[in-house]
Amino acid sequence: DADVTQTPRNRITKTGKRIMLECSQTKGHDRMYWYRQDPGLGLRLIYYSFDVKDINKGEISDGYSVSRQAQAKFSLSLESAIPNQTALYFCATSDSGTGVGEQYFGPGTRLTVT
Amino acid sequence: GENVEQHPSTLSVQEGDSAVIKCTYSDSASNYFPWYKQELGKRPQLIIDIRSNVGEKKDQRIAVTLNKTAKHFSLHITETQPEDSAVYFCAARSTSGTYKYIFGTGTRLKVLA
Predict the structure, then answer these.
(1) End-to-end CA distance of chain A
(2) Higher pLDDT, B17 or B51
């Protein structure tokens, strides 16, 4: 679904470096989410935002921060990357207006911390 | 806290047989239950969903059932085909203020030709 894009798609970084993952959407949705996927653990919620001025922690927010720069953009930052943050990261959006609840996922960013 | 348990973690079936994946949720305020299919290296894609005011929903070879009293829901795939091989995730969305989605840990389905 090209309506939700993530950059970069792949990134290798070193321990201690700051890194930002970006998500953009053209769907006009108000709600955006960041998930982390690890083998055998499913998708775990890091942060979510229901509009530009609303930011909420998910179940695994430690070591991460986010910024909702505009309705269409939601960035995830790792202030000081560590190896156990190596994972596949997905951004997702949903629309509160329809009341349906379907989430649309971006293509994912594979992050490796060495 | 909220939790969604999903079973089995892996499932192998012969082509043409049926597959059933089960999920149990803990938050009784959950009202929306989507199922996602994720192929290797790709993003999760919604395949079917059900709301809490409905007990069953069907879309061709895929069906979902919901038992609100027992707080569990299941995905049923009939006449399985090799292209059904993927990882399937269930999720539950709560209405108790946060509207968060809690995902199960996934089921790797292999359809053997």
Answers:
(1) 31
(2) B17
